[in-house]
Design brief:
The complex is a heterodimer of chains A (about 425) and B (about 525). With about 425 residues, chain A is an alpha/beta fold. Chain A has helices at about 10-20, 60-65, 105-110, 115-120, 170-175, 175-190, 205-220, 235-245, 255-265, 295-300, 325, 350-365, 380-385, and strands at about 1-5, 35, 50-55, 85-90, 95-100, 155-160, 160-165, 195-200, 230, 250, 270, 280, 285-290, 305-310, 330-335, 340, 350, 370-375, 395-400. The two termini of chain B are about 30 Å apart. The mean pLDDT of chain B is about 95. The chains are: A alpha/beta (about 425), B alpha/beta (about 525).
């Protein structure tokens, strides 16, 4: 049965990195990702289940890995070879439809007692990602023992990772639950208060879902309501989505600081005709859903003194002038994955995935799935995902519904 | 040979192609047979001795006013206010009419022993003038005598220390104007009446006002009921200004109004073909047109803009009147109509215009899309008396490149208006309710207006409101050769050629429509019968 497998291969890493200079996703064909015959992984224990993926998304972190642009920070918490794919909707052997919470925390690793974070349900903060009875791997899709979503052979998931999907929810909605959980966790980490101005920089999947999460959680009284959500989106279709999902204003990223300035009634420093102005005030919260040097720099230039920047998009090595961070007392907050959240109206912490299932269902976030591909066309799929914005797309996913059948010859457009 | 009046040509098979302005370019378009082309009257004879005429006007005032020398005395406080860089268009060759008039006023003031004299550029919410612009308007002698001593000022509508509230009109309109001017023993206002809209009570009530005052007439409702701005009795904009002007007078502010009119000699000799009728073009005109067009086609837009903005118009002073505001303005308006009026029989289905590189708000600057709309729908559309040139539900076709480009120093709030307001609504009423206040009171725009050379934060709204009557009246607006994204952002339709535009227009007005082309500049005003 065919799977996409990512192997440790220095030459192919280098080739992918070179090819990615042509554009994200361009190196899929020459990089360490191979379509190959595999067997289903063994069940690591009695509390594990087999999952046959139906749809599995291609995430920004997947693209960074395939392009050889991922930070070396992750080397010790990944094990090779692995089957990528951590945005997964699939079926258990019982036929039940589920989504997978991919973080491989203490429970999945059989570590007793769990670390302090896992004990509180904050699995995203697990301190033992390289330990226990599994080989290292921060998530399903980066661990040699669990398999991943880009496989017709299936994967294995610990009971703690499994969330049932309501019958009314479409597969497309379900495959967006994992990134929606990231967005929910990010916006709740931001601690937005009533009336605050929130700028969202970047309107790929995470940016759009962050907007959706902000708007939905506020509308349902789970979180305080921002006064405005200003979205910086490079492409027209992204601006349309941003507005539809709840942004007050959706603009080109170059215009975002101007909108933030106006909304926050700030002054600006620097000549207006140089385009290099920075605001004296700014947004209360900036959600940086890009994670580049430029986006972090721009976030710093438009966050008010004492404001918060939340890094939602996965950054790598960046070069940023932190003088404004120091001078203006800005908090730069990282937010990864999910776990449990404290929300208004709930006495006990709520699992992030439960909130994400609610958001995805309420807003039909599956509308953001723009294209699906069979595994055999992985090079096209990855290239499409890498240039999603330019090509009018948002989320690209692998469709494994026909994967059990022998591959048919695709007519390429 | 005496100057010929305005003329309406009916296009036939022998009519040569018609010149259309296209920003910093121009082009020739062959209009359908039966179309009408309205040409401006030829320039009337200028005053033979402008200085003598000015002195005569100052000493023989109109209406209930004493001669200027009789109003001047030692120890008095005199403020001379003058129109800003938005007039005239294009800027006139030196000496500017303001310089000629102000020199005579100062001469009389000096003769009377007046030593407390301040000059004020009546900016309203326009950008501050640069030193070069002030020197051009006033001449070096006046500039050097006043500016170094801080006696040449520019009205600051955001300076609470130099504004005075004079009261409310019976219509509840707040009147707040420049304190120095209002508290002077005499306020002399020096006007250039390029079009019939200018001058009268509008000079002081608008030019020296604050946002608190201006919002009462610079709003969608007033603009929709100003039909047109060029016809004061039918203009609610003018009615409001007249109410305010009378309140200003009743408040004890003594205004001595000086209004000047110019002839329509608009372009220097190297661009003379621009104001000639095409069938009368000489060989030299044809050669100049061909050479200029070819050269401009190869010239980057930025350079072409510099070339055109360097044009100094040979406008000549045609009349000057002084004295009481309303009496002066009546005489001035009659002069303007004599120079610019053209009788036109009936309305048209389609009105076409070529928009030039300049409007009142982009002197030495960029004609951004909002200003394109304002020039076409606000100014040129309103160059009528009686009825609009184009019928209700008709189509307006503009020719302009409409670049998505803004001068960041002059028009900072325009950028945000275009990105953040027009992207949401093109309805003047909606934007007035939802966005105007936040732009008008934005501290950054206020800062740039007061300390830089930026138009006030609310100014782009006013530009859009100027379009309100046309937006309500027209069935469609088409821009030929414009940046499609910018054109669509404003709710208009882009067309790549005039032929395409006419086809699109036919969808609105039906087949075999009537078409009229307003061949301006030079400026004219249609008296639509």
């Amino acid at each position: 049965v065919r799977s996409l497998v990512f192997e440790r291969n220095v030459a192919r890493f280098a080739a992918a990195r070179v090819a990615s200079a042509l554009g994200s996703g361009a190196g899929a064909g020459v990089g360490p990702l191979r379509l190959t015959e595999t067997e289903a992984p063994d069940l690591p224990g009695g509390d594990w289940r087999r999952v046959m993926p139906v749809l599995s998304g291609i995430c920004g972190s997947d693209l960074a890995t395939l392009d050889g642009r991922s930070s070396r920070y992750f080397e010790e918490i990944v094990s090779f070879p692995f089957v990528p794919g951590h945005e997964i909707v699939g079926h258990l052997e019982s036929g039940e439809r589920v989504v997978i919470e991919p973080v491989l925390g203490c429970a999945a690793r059989g570590i007793v007692p769990p670390c302090a974070a896992c004990a509180e349900g904050r699995t995203g903060d697990c301190q033992q990602l390289a330990f226990g009875h599994l080989r290292p791997g921060l998530q399903t899709g980066f661990c040699a023992d669990t398999g991943g979503g880009w496989s017709a052979a299936g994967l294995v998931a610990h009971e703690s990772q499994i969330h049932a999907v309501p019958e009314s929810m479409s597969d497309a909605d379900a495959v967006t639950v994992e990134p929606t959980a990231c967005a929910v966790h990010a916006v709740l980490s931001a601690g937005v208060r009533d009336g605050e101005t929130v700028a969202v920089l970047g309107a790929g999947t995470l940016g759009l879902l962050s907007i959706a999460a902000l708007a939905h959680l506020a509308a349902t009284g789970r979180a305080e309501a921002p006064g405005s959500i200003l979205a910086g989106a490079r492409y027209e279709h992204q601006r349309r989505w941003a507005a539809e999902l709840g942004a007050t204003d959706a603009l080109d990223p170059d215009q975002l600081p101007r909108a933030v300035r106006r909304r926050s009634r700030s002054l600006a420093l620097g000549r207006p005709d140089t385009g290099a102005q920075r605001l004296t005030g700014g947004a209360d919260v900036v959600l940086d859903c890009v994670g580049s040097s430029a986006s972090i720099g721009q976030s710093l230039a438009m966050t008010r003194p004492g404001g918060r920047i939340v890094l939602v998009g996965m950054p790598g090595r960046v070069h940023v002038d932190l003088a404004p961070l120091w001078h203006r007392g800005v908090s730069l907050v990282g937010t990864y994955a999910y776990g449990v959240e404290r929300v208004a109206g709930a006495a006990e912490p709520v699992r992030t995935f439960d909130l994400a299932l609610e958001v995805a269902g309420a807003l039909s976030t599956g509308r953001l799935v723009s294209a699906t591909y069979p595994l055999e066309r992985f090079e096209e799929a990855v290239a499409h995902a890498g240039s999603a914005g330019r090509r009018g797309a948002v989320k690209v996913a692998f469709d494994l519904r026909d994967a059990a059948r022998p591959p048919r010859k695709e007519r390429h457009p | 040979m005496s100057p010929r009046p305005g003329f309406v040509l009916e296009v036939d098979r022998s009519t040569p192609p018609t010149l259309f302005w296209h920003g910093e370019r121009f082009t020739l378009e062959r209009l359908p047979e039966g179309s009408r082309v309205i040409y401006a009257p030829e320039p009337l004879a200028p005053l033979e001795d402008p200085v003598a005429a000015i002195r005569h006007a100052l000493t023989h005032p109109l209406g209930d006013s004493s001669p200027l020398p009789d109003l001047l005395r030692p120890g008095m406080k005199l403020t001379i206010c003058f129109d800003d860089v938005s007039l005239p268009l294009p800027p006139m060759q030196a000496p500017d009419a303001r310089q000629l008039v102000i020199e005579q006023v100062l001469d009389m003031a000096a003769g009377a022993g007046v030593d407390d004299v301040v000059l004020v550029a009546a900016l309203a919410l326009h950008r501050r003038m640069t030193e070069a612009e002030l020197r051009h308007a006033l001449g070096d002698r006046v500039y050097d005598a006043f500016a170094p001593h801080g006696l040449l000022t520019q009205h600051d509508a955001e300076d609470p220390d130099n504004l005075i509230f004079l009261g409310q009109t019976a219509h509840g309109e707040d009147v707040e104007i420049n304190k120095r001017a209002a508290t002077s023993d005499l306020l002399v206002y020096v006007n250039i009446n390029l079009v019939a809209m200018d001058g009268g009570h509008k000079s002081v009530a608008t030019g020296l006002a604050s946002y608190r005052s201006l919002r009462h007439h610079h709003n969608p409702a007033t603009m929709r009921h100003s039909r047109s701005f060029m016809d004061a009795p039918a203009s609610e904009l003018h009615s409001a200004n007249w109410r305010m002007g009378r309140l200003i007078a009743e408040s004890g502010v003594r205004v001595f109004q000086i209004e000047t009119t110019l002839n329509t000699d608009t372009f220097p000799s190297n661009f003379a073909f621009l104001q000639r009728r095409e069938w009368e073009w000489s060989l030299r005109d044809r050669a100049t047109y061909a050479a200029a067009s070819a050269a401009l086609d190869r010239t980057p837009a930025r350079v072409a803009r510099q070339i055109f903005h360097a044009i100094r118009s040979p406008h000549a002073l045609r009349s000057v009147h002084a004295g009481e505001v309303e009496a002066v303005h009546a005489a001035t308006t009659a002069d303007v109509w004599e120079q610019q009026g053209v009788v036109v029989e009936g309305q048209t289905d389609i009105l076409t215009m070529g928009l030039p590189y300049i409007c009142p708000y982009n002197v030495n600057s960029i004609m951004n899309p909002i200003l394109v709309a304002c020039l076409g729908l606000g100014y040129f559309f309103n160059l009528y008396r009686g009825k609009p040139l184009v019928r209700q539900g008709g189509v307006l076709i503009l020719h302009h490149p409409t670049p998505w480009e803004f001068h960041p120093g002059h028009h900072p709030s325009y950028i945000d208006f275009f990105e953040q307001v027009l992207s949401q609504t093109t309805d003047p009423g909606v934007m007035s309710e939802q966005y105007e206040q936040s732009f008008a009171t934005d501290p950054w725009y206020v800062h740039l207006y007061r300390t830089g050379h930026a138009y006030h934060g609310v100014h782009p709204f006013y530009m859009w409101y100027w379009c309100a009557h046309a937006l309500e009246h027209l069935g469609r607006v088409i821009i030929v050769g414009g940046d499609p994204r910018a054109v669509r952002r404003m709710g208009f339709s882009p067309a790549s050629t005039m032929a395409d535009a006419l086809e699109m227009a036919a969808d609105v007005v039906g087949p075999s429509p009537t078409l009229t082309h307003l061949h301006t500049p030079p400026i004219m005003m249609a008296d639509v019968q």
